[in-house]
Amino acid sequence: MPAPLMHIESSPSLPREADVVVIGGGVVGVFTAYYLARRGVSVALLEKGRVAAEQSSRNWGWCRQQNRDARELPMATKSLGLWEKVAQETGEDTGFRRCGLLYLSQNDDELAGWAKWRDFARTVGVTTHMLSAEKATERGKATGRKWKGGVFSPTDGTADTSRAVPVAALGIMAAGGSVHQYCAARGIELSAGRVSGVVTEAGTIRTTTVVMAGGAWASSFCNQLGVRFPQAAVRQSILAVAPGANGLPDALHTARVSLTRRGNGGYTLAISGRARVDPTPQQLRFSREFVPMFARRWRSLAPGAFEGWRQGHESLRKWVLDDVTPMERNRILDPKPDMRQIRLTYQRACGLLPELKRTAISHAWAGYVDSTPDGIPAVGEIEGIPGFILAAGFSGHGFGIGPGAGHMIADIITGSEPIVDPRPYRPERLKTAAWGKVAEF
Ligand SMILES: Cc1cc2nc3c(=O)[nH]c(=O)nc-3n(C[C@H](O)[C@H](O)[C@H](O)COP(=O)(O)OP(=O)(O)OC[C@H]3O[C@@H](n4cnc5c(N)ncnc54)[C@H](O)[C@@H]3O)c2cc1C
């Protein structure tokens, strides 16, 4: 069964024009439209399937500063504050709690890495606590093991992946924007070289500003406009267990397995970073750009299957705007989970936390995690196409920083002081090789 997800109704009709059209109803697109609508900008959000049905409901739900790359940390910090406000602003619970994140380890090098990050975090005012062996063992008592050490980040938290993004989408409509599910954007119309409209499967919307927040579909969409966006996705498999286990931490990372308490009292279980690489035409096209990333992460990666080719999100094909496109043929990217890994994850989790043996697997799913070559999102207006803003490549970190990213994009569009410095995210940086620039975590 795929990841649980709250259902929301769409707006009744597609507008003929809008100040801004946002393509993609994941966390990034939804929060962009949310902050625009709340400023009185007329905005339409297009989602080819259901809001949050791809990566944005398939993830762990961690909203973390801990171990963030310096380029992303300011956005992570701002996002935590924004997550807190969404519930007040919408009157709906997103499940966000600053429950703190617990990391436990038996490995000296890993502990040294976390201590190094703690020293850096201090310089930018972020608090995180290194745990001695005694304190780590105490905090990790549900494991019944002695630990060499750990780290606890008290101001980080988690949100409920089954409802957080749909709740924010309801907030778009409450603020006067519109949300259109099962409505794919087929392409962009240009007049005199700048954006003049978005062609959807249900008609054209006149606009001068488009945000492409299509997650794993962004590069193939950009390719239609002749824009080269190096992006690749890997398939991660993950599972949820039903409620029934007591006394476990809300969010725990260990090298062998990690767990997160879900909104319903069950737990999400996963092996951090473990993924399969499914070859696709797009991966072959950008393979050179991703060598530095692969050199850093290869230990966690395993060869995949033709699953990715079949899904069509990384096609290099050019399509026409008056016929059905790959986005309409695949409303929800729902790749097959790696069942061997699902079993291994559950086995490891029950070994680490025997209390989990009282539960059963309720859901197992996979998600394609879309990444840039340096592991930092690509956000900004594309050179040479005024009005076309790219916001994709969130590289496995986008859920937690989605509110900050959406706020920053709304700031750029409305000419306000950006909530964080947008320069580290400029898509143009991807024209140079990522050697020495791949995000650490
Ligand atoms: C297993 C897993 C664990 C993760 N854990 C975490 C975590 O703990 N914390 C964290 O911060 N991040 C985590 N992530 C990463 C995070 O989920 C993503 O970075 C984030 O959700 C990306 O959001 P997005 O809006 O860019 O893309 P998505 O959520 O993928 O949304 C893109 C949307 O665009 C739509 N779309 C695409 N093209 C079109 C089109 N032409 N017209 C209309 N709609 C279109 C798609 O249907 C899709 O719904 C994890 C990811 C996975 C898979």
TrEMBL record:
Pfam families named in the record: DAO
Q: Which PANTHER family match?
A: D-AMINO ACID DEHYDROGENASE, SARCOSINE DEHYDROGENASE-RELATED
One MF term in the entry's GO annotations: D-amino-acid dehydrogenase activity
Name by which UniProt lists this protein: D-amino-acid oxidase
Q: What cellular-component terms does GO give this entry?
A: cytoplasm; plasma membrane
Q: Which GO terms describe its biological process?
A: D-alanine catabolic process
Q: Which family does it belong to?
A: Belongs to the DadA oxidoreductase family.
Could you tell me which residue ranges the FAD dependent oxidoreductase domain spans? 19-411
Q: Which organism is it from?
A: Mesorhizobium temperatum
Task: Kindly state which keywords UniProt assigns to this record, in alphabetical order.
Answer: Oxidoreductase
Q: InterPro entries given for it?
A: FAD-dep_OxRdtase, FAD/NAD-bd_sf
